[in-house]
Amino acid sequence: MSGKCLKTIFLMVIGLSLMIGPGLTQTARDFIKSGDEYYSRWEDQKALDEYLKALEVEPKNYEALWKAARGHVDVADLMTGTGKEVEKQKFEMYVKAEKYARQAISVNPNDTWGHFFLSAALGKKVLMLGKKEQIDASKQVKAAVDKAIELDPNNDLAYHALGRWHRRMAEIGGAKRALGSLIYGSIPKGSMEESEKWLKKAVELKPDYINHHLELGRTYMAMKKYDLARQEFNRCLELPEASSKDKQLKEEAKAELVSLGKKSEKED
Q: Under 8 Å CB-to-CB from 95, ≥6 apart: which residues?
């Protein structure tokens, strides 16, 4: 074989290795690490893309599965706009989040995060469904949250979810609950006192997390503890942003303060 032919073959091999080499050498751990770096910079879509790449390499990687579930929830939560197409896209993202969370649990049923993100995905998805589906899923959400707390009593996000669950259930009043039970079956019970208790626990575990204060403020609003609600909403505005959602959450806190001001004026 001539030297020219050998040179041509050598160049072809080098070119092929440049095209396919990096993809073959990166492990699931590499992709997860890259995803975590994007996540720390609040680039949720890029983080999700990396976790999905990790799953292409290692489909049963538990960490990649629960982080893919988290990523789908995060990206959907930050979608802007209105209309059926946006709602459809968000719903599909929550369905995928549920799928990855369930896969994570099947791989490792004894860790908190698979169960927690199952509760998060279900909780988001069912709000876009009918009343019967919401009632049925509320029981699954509670079971997943309880399991997440059982597996990690310091999971502040799980206590946050439990506090919100109790407020939602408590907001279903007596007459509405009785009628709903006749039509849809038994409706789980919750209480504002339990909501306050568990959201305060979340704040205790992670006092600098804006969303804990926002939801605790909303529970205080529902309980007509307006001074305490105002404190929590103002705390939201004082804390530095620490996640991709915090700017939006601060805007919600401002809106709650405006609403609170109007309620105070009416009662005066």
A: 121, 125
Among 246, 236, 250, 152, residue whose Cα is nearest residue 201 = 152
Report how far residue 229's alpha carbon sits from residue 253's, in angstroms, rounded to the nearest whole number. Answer: 10
Q: Is the pTM of this model over 0.90?
A: no
d(CA 191, CA 13): 68
Pairwise CA distance, residues 91 & 93, whole Å: 5
Cβ neighbours for 58, distance < 8 A, ≥ 6 positions apart: 27, 28, 64
CA–CA dist 168, 149 (Å, integer): 19
Tens-digit pLDDT profile for residues 14-70? 444 444 444 457 999 999 999 999 999 999 999 999 999 999 999 999 999 999 999
Q: How far, in Å, CA of 108 to CA of 8, rounded?
A: 50
Give the residue carrying structure tokens 């609950």. 177
